[in-house]
Amino acid sequence: MKFNLIGCLLVMIICAVIGALLWPYSINTWLVYFGKAPSIVWWHGALLGFCPGIGQATIPVAVITWILMLFLV
Description:
- It is built from four helices and no strands.
- About 85% of the residues lie in helices and about 0% in strands.
- The chain has one domain.
- Helix 1 (about 1-35) crosses helix 2 (about 40-50) and helix 1 (about 1-35) runs parallel beside helix 4 (about 60-70).
- It has helices at about 1-35, 40-50, 50-55, 60-70.
- By secondary structure, it is an all-alpha fold.
- The mean pLDDT is about 95.
């Protein structure tokens, strides 16, 4: 029981850290591409990392953004 709770908290912390790094990159990159000011900060990304569906899409979205920006910019 104790290890299940610790494992769940560990996964949530890892998702929050990854989201804090990658969601601001992805969203701000697209905002700049469309001529808007970048406005997403790290804690917005951490909150997105906690969301079940959105948090799991963090890495694929960042990779797709990176690849597309190689050709669009």
